[in-house]
Amino acid sequence: MEIVSYVVDEPFAESTRYFKIALVAFLSTFMIFSAVSFLLFRIKKKEAEYEKLVRVLGISNNEVEFSTRAIGEEYASGDYLLPLAFVTTVCLFGFSMLLFGADLVSLNPGKSNMLLTGMLPNNALIYLRERFRIFSENSNDRSHDLPLQMIEGINMFHKVRLGEVGIDNAQNLAEANVIELFLKTPFNPSQLVDWVAQAKLYVYFKEDIEKLRRIGIRTIFDLCPLCEHQEQLAQLAEEVRISKLSLEMICDRLRADNGVARLYQFHGLLSTMDVMKETSTL
Question: Which of 9, 171, 182, 226 ranks highest by number of CB atoms within 10 Å?
Answer without folding.
Answer: 182
